[in-house]
Amino acid sequence: HCSLESSQTRPTSAMSLLQQILETMFIDPELLAELSKDQKEMLFHKMREEQIRRWQSRNTQQAAALASKKKAPPRLKFGPKAHIFEDKDLDKRADEAAKRVAQAEAKRERAEMEEDERQAKVLAEIAIQEQVAQQTSEQARKAEELRLREEEEQQQLRDAAEAERQAAIERETYMTMKEARLAAEAEAKAQAEREAHARKLAQERAKEEAQLEKERKAAEAAAVQQAQQRQQEIYLSMREIREQAKRAREEEEKRMDAMYAAQEKAAREAEAKQKAAAERARKQAQQQDAERATQSILAKLAERKSAIDATQAAKAHSIARSTSLNQSPAPPRPSRNALPLPPRSFHGRTAATTAARPSKPESEAAVVAWVKEEELPRGAGRSATGRMEPWFHGPISRVDAERLLKGQPVGAFLLRVSTRIWGYTLSFVDSDRYKHFLVDASDGKYSVFGAQTNHTHTTLNTLIAFHQKVAVSKTGTKLTNPVGDPRGNPSLQQILR
């Protein structure tokens, strides 16, 4: 087995974490320790499916190769009374097995189509809700401002009533009857003005809410009309993805068949080359005997010539030593036109090469920087009005997440920044225990690692909304109540500052 990511850099191609594991058939032990029992079961199930697929593909190729080479044996007859039994039952059993396989495949395709239709309907509803929320976000902000102003006016009325009560006590204690009557009339007039202003503000808010409700209903009506068309588009898109995967498998099988045929052709060519080489070797053997005699004579001549040359060289060296100078000449200066040396290279990379992002976070600071630079600009964890979602938390630990989920009903959830991978961890209350599912974001999209569906999402809000309607675990649990502070969780301070 090879490593989950053989190099120390992040892969350049957009490949999800699950695709990388199935490609290498290996998972990092640290990442495996972070997975829950359900995620491990789902992962091992998919790895086993991939092993079976590869095994079946290899067996099919081998069987096709054997069938192409196999010849039909001659039919034997042992005598005039001997009977030749044709195995008709074998053909019948083979046909029945083929029918069963075809029926199982048709059943599987129907189940896939039904599941695609169900998920397409859910995604269409989510898209409609997001569209309506975007269209009415401005009106919602205005209604929120009016509500806050109304609460402020109500508080002012309560404060004024308390002040009036204290003033009445003071009038009874210190003022004369005339002064008290004038003060009471002035206070009653001010109170009437405040109440009139409050009623006017309430009417404006009611009018604004009625307009908002009218626009919301109109947007919903228009969205419902487009729901069927949107659902059909999503369904066709999902079917196209499955068809592309099927075509890719067929092309892979054809490629393997072509590769096997090429290998067989190469083997035949190699055999022919071996025969030709043997023939050439036999011919060359006849020439080698003559060449050996010639080489022996040449070797003796070379030895004699070497001895003569050595004698002459010794004499020349003796003469040169007697006439040589004591100082040796200086080495030549390098040319001014010489080219500069290229920059030093380390394993194919120059010193100016910048380091790529690691395959997994090196520290919590690296995770915080990744969220700031890439995730927050994409709107991660924010609602349509720009507020932080209560379920979005910073890099808190598993223990802190379970402390927040303690006492919550089944389906309560929160999403926290993970320090193990470039992604998040979905922590929720299941029917038997707390569960923590990794959310992979390595390929630019979001998917719950080990969930019941492999569907990817473009935003975290869409992922949460999807699993509020589609089960996230095999126990059938859906996400229900977000856990966190609606005004913003404290763990986000180091990310937002």
Mean pLDDT: 77
Order of helices and strands: HHHHHHEEHEHEEEEHH
Helix content: 55-70%
Show unreliable segments. 1-14, 76-85, 325-332, 334-355
Work out the radius of gyration.
Answer: 42 Å
Helix count, per DSSP?
10
Strand order within the widest beta sheet = 3-4-5-6-7
What is the 3D form? elongated
Tell me the fraction of residues in β-strands, as a range: 5-15%
Largest sheet: 5 strands, mixed
**Termini separation:** 43 Å
β-strand number: 7
Structural class: mainly alpha
Would you give an account of this structure?
The strands form 2 sheets. A 5-stranded mixed sheet has the order 3-4-5-6-7, covered by helices on one side. A hairpin with a 2-residue loop joins strand 1 and strand 2 (349-350). The radius of gyration is 42 Å and the shape is elongated. It has helices at residues 17-24, 29-34, 37-69, 88-135, 137-174, 177-323, 364-375, 398-405, 460-467, 493-496, and strands at 345-346, 349-350, 392-393, 413-417, 423-429, 434-440, 447-448. Helix 4 (88-135) packs across helix 6 and helix 5 crosses helix 6. The model is unreliable at 1-14, 76-85, 325-332 and 334-355 (pLDDT under 50). With 497 residues, it is mostly helical. Helices cover 63% and strands 5% of the residues.
